[in-house]
C-alpha cells in the first residue's frame, strides 16, 4: 500500500518506522528544517528517511499548487501526519485514495492543537494518551479510529511524558496500522462538548506568577522542564530558571514571591510553598536550589518578581 507521510520530531520518526515495519511503500516524506534557536534534542525524520532512500521534501508552504500537483502524481493510498506543523488543505487531503490519518499525542477531543504535551502537565491532569484519527480540514477534529491512554504520574515532567507518549505511539501503531490497512477500525465522531485547545506556547509564557498556588507553579515547572525552555522568575533584574521543584500546602503569612528559606530554597506562593530543587541562572549550569539561591545572593525575606 502506497503512503506519503508528513512528519517531524520524535513522533514523526516513530510514525515513519511504524509505516515501514507495517509494509507501506512510502513515496515521499515531508518534514521541516530544524529552526534556529530551538533545542534539537529529538530524532531527525529527514535523516531516517534518507537512510531508507525515501525522497525528502521541506516545503515552506505545503499547500502551494506545485506541491499539490506533486502529491497528486504520487497517487498515495493513504496520507499520514505526525507532529507536522502545517495545516494540510482540502486538496492535499483529497490526494489519498483511502484518506488521510493523523496521530495526536493527546486524548482527542481534549488538547487539540499545539503544545498538548506541555498543557496537560501545566493543567495538572493525571491522564493523556495517543489518538489515531481521520484528518479533515478542521485540524485534530476528524473521526477517531483508535486511542490508548497514558497515565501521568506525579513525578512526570515534560521530558518523561514525551518519552512515554513516543513509546506508546510506536507500540500502538504496530497494532493499529495493520488493522487500518485491513479496514478493521471503526470511526466515531469526536464529542465537541469535551473539546479543548490552549494554543502554542512561547518561551516568555514560562514566567512564574507567584500569586498562583504552589501546586500550579510546580505544574508549570513540570510542564516546561528541560529540554523545554523552563519556568523562570527574576530577582533584582537577574533571571533564573527553575528545573525541578516540589510543593507543600503549608501557609505563609507573607507576600507571594517572598523567599522563606535558602537552605532549602523555599518561596511563598498565593497559597502554599514551592521548594526549588534545581535551577540555573542565564550564565551558569544546572545547580541545586540552595546553590542557586547562593549564586543569586538571595536571603530570606527577598521578594522575587512575578
Helices and strands, with pairings:
Blueprint: E1 2-7, H1 9-21, E2 25-30, H2 45-51, E3 56-57, H3 65-74, E4 78-82, H4 90-93, E5 100-104, H5 116-122, E6 127-134, E7 144-151, H6 158-181, H7 214-223, E8 231-235, E9 238-248, E10 259-262, E11 265-268, E12 273-281, E13 287-288, H8 289-295
Parallel strand pairs: 1-2, 1-4, 2-3, 4-5
Antiparallel strand pairs: 5-6, 6-7, 8-9, 9-12, 10-11, 11-12, 12-13
Explain what you see:
- This protein has 306 residues and is of the alpha/beta class.
- It has two domains: 2-194, 3-Layer(aba) Sandwich (Rossmann fold), CATH 3.40.50; 203-295, Methionyl-tRNA Fmet Formyltransferase, Chain A, domain 2, CATH 3.10.25.10.
- Helix content is 27%, strand content 25%.
- It has eight helices and 13 strands.
- It has helices at residues 9-21, 45-51, 65-74, 90-93, 116-122, 158-181, 214-223, 289-295; strands spanning 2-7, 25-30, 56-57, 78-82, 100-104, 127-134, 144-151, 231-235, 238-248, 259-262, 265-268, 273-281, 287-288.
- The strands form two sheets. It has a seven-stranded mixed β-sheet. Strands 8, 9, 10, 11, 12 and 13 form a six-stranded antiparallel β-sheet that branches.
- Helix 1 runs parallel beside helix 6 and helix 5 (116-122) packs antiparallel against helix 7 (214-223).
- The longest helix is centred in the middle third of the chain and has 24 residues, at 158-181.
- The model has no long low-confidence stretch (mean pLDDT 96).
CATH superfamily of the largest domain: Formyl transferase, N-terminal domain
What is the average per-residue confidence, as pLDDT, rounded to a whole number? 96
Radius of gyration: 22 Å
**Top-tier CATH class of the largest domain:** Alpha Beta
Helix content: 25-40%
Number of domains: 2
CATH architecture of the largest domain: 3-Layer(aba) Sandwich
Amino acid at each position: 500500500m502506497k503512503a506519503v507521510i508528513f512528519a517531524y520530531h520524535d513522533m514523526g520518526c516513530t510514525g515513519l518506522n511504524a509505516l515501514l515495519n507495517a509494509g507501506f511503500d512510502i513515496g515521499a516524506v515531508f518534514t521541516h528544517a530544524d529552526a534556529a534557536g530551538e533545542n534539537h534534542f529529538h530524532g531527525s525524520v529527514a535523516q531516517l528517511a534518507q537512510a531508507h532512500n525515501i525522497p525528502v521534501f521541506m516545503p515552506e508552504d505545503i499547500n502551494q499548487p506545485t506541491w499539490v500537483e506533486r502529491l497528486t502524481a504520487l497517487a498515495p493510498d493513504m496520507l499520514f501526519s505526525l507532529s507536522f506543523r502545517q495545516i494540510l488543505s482540502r486538496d492535499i487531503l483529497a490526494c489519498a485514495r483511502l484518506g488521510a490519518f493523523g496521530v495526536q499525542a493527546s486524548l482527542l477531543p481534549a488538547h487539540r492543537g499545539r503544545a498538548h504535551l506541555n498543557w496537560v502537565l501545566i493543567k495538572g491532569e493525571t491522564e493523556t494518551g495517543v489518538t489515531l484519527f481521520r484528518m479533515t480540514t478542521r485540524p485534530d477534529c476528524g473521526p477517531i479510529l483508535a486511542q490508548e491512554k497514558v497515565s501521568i504520574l506525579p513525578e512526570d515532567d515534560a521530558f518523561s511524558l514525551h518519552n512515554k507518549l513516543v513509546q506508546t505511539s510506536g507500540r500502538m501503531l504496530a497494532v493499529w496500522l495493520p488493522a487500518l490497512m485491513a479496514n478493521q477500525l471503526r470511526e466515531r465522531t469526536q464529542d465537541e462538548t469535551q473539546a479543548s485547545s490552549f494554543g502554542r506556547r512561547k518561551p516568555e509564557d514560562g514566567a512564574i506568577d507567584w500569586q498562583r498556588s504552589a501546586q500550579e507553579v510546580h505544574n508549570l515547572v513540570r510542564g516546561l522542564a528541560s529540554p523545554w525552555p523552563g519556568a523562570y522568575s527574576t530577582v533584582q533584574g537577574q533571571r533564573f530558571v527553575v528545573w525541578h521543584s516540589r510543593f507543600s500546602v503549608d501557609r505563609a503569612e507573607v507576600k507571594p514571591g517572598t523567599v522563606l528559606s535558602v537552605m532549602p530554597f523555599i518561596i511563598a506562593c498565593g497559597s502554599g510553598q514551592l521548594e526549588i530543587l534545581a535551577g540555573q541562572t542565564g550564565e551558569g549550569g544546572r545547580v541545586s536550589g540552595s546553590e542557586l539561591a547562593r549564586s543569586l545572593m538571595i536571603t530570606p525575606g527577598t521578594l522575587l518578581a512575578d
